[in-house]
Amino acid sequence: MASTTNVVKVGSRKSQLALVQTNTIINKLKELNPEYEFVVVTMTTTGDNILDSALSKIGAKDLFTRELELALEAGEVDFVVHSLKDLPTRIADTLVIGCVYKRDSEFDAVVMHPKHKGKKLEDLPENSVIGTSSLRRAAQLSRKFPTFKFENIRGNLNTRFKKLDEDEKYDAIILAEAGLVRMGWDDRIAQVLTSDECMYAVSQGAMAVECRAGDRKTLTLLSDIHHQDTAIACIAERAFLRRLEGGCSVPVCVSTKLSKTKLTLTGGVFSIDGKQCVLDTHSKDLPEEPANKKMATNGHLFAAIVPGNIDPALCHIAEEVGTELANLLLATEAANILAEAKEQTARAVMEEKARKEREMVEKTKQGEVTAE
């Protein structure tokens, strides 16, 4: 039995995928630190509770993280595991991303209704209905398949599969390939979309571990699984998104290439209907020899990510690539596209709130709920 000083409490959402991801991190840490005992504390987030609204219509950037962060700030857990794409680029000053785990596939995947087994998107008939909760996916794919109808689909992976297979509403759904593989459901993948077909979300496929900023014990524990290439790519992507002040409410996408000598980031801003887009690419050379990893960073975080055991010079370059690419886009029509997308989603949030209020009033009238 581990001593109480070696017991680590880990926060996680209750969904099957979240627990798979949390246990992946725990198992790796156990392998490296067998003297520790890890206890999982599960909780439900706002995003888990609101399933009848599109993510972009809820109006919050921390739908799947805030409750976990509150538990972290209160000392109820020592760290929490996230899909990094769910974690806002700006988090509380008391918290940090202690490590970024090695990235799995960053690409999106198509899962077909059983009646379309063996087909790809281009094989589907006109007016096919594609389920996705992502404005980014819908905006990009509507350019390539203008007759398709993109409908919101929410819920955990199990729920979305059930809706696809049983409701007869959707011809296909689009999901992150990484999540499907982690769940062992890669046999349902009909097609993996390349960056030319659908650029991916910032940090998609990467898992992050968030902890308290001053918790040296936990930060030291996490430093052993901080993956350099993944962290560098995600710093660039998150810096790009942070400068654009985007999130799930606007169609922003990326594609990153990292070699030993160069970091290249391609980023895109789309209108919500997909009819307008601006893409650009920016790159920087990486130093041939690593700098002194002990060089001072003065506590600087890189889109909330700690340098940890990673050369801070590489982190600075990655941050510059993302920020500078965003600035290039903001100097073009992308700024107007982004502003309009934000206005549209703000209106959609207000309309969704009004719809829910009307529903509540109607249910109260019918005696389905008790008015307070």
UniProtKB/TrEMBL annotation:
Pathway: Porphyrin-containing compound metabolism; protoporphyrin-IX biosynthesis; coproporphyrinogen-III from 5-aminolevulinate: step 2/4. Gene3D superfamilies: Periplasmic binding protein-like II, Porphobilinogen deaminase, C-terminal domain. Residues 351-366 have a biased composition (Basic and acidic residues). Keywords: Porphyrin biosynthesis, Transferase. Pfam families: Porphobil_deam, Porphobil_deamC. Its cofactor is dipyrromethane. GO terms for molecular function: hydroxymethylbilane synthase activity. HAMAP family: Porphobil_deam (MF_00260). NCBIfam families: hemC. This is hydroxymethylbilane synthase. It comes from Dreissena polymorpha (Zebra mussel). The lineage of its organism: Eukaryota, Metazoa, Spiralia, Lophotrochozoa, Mollusca.
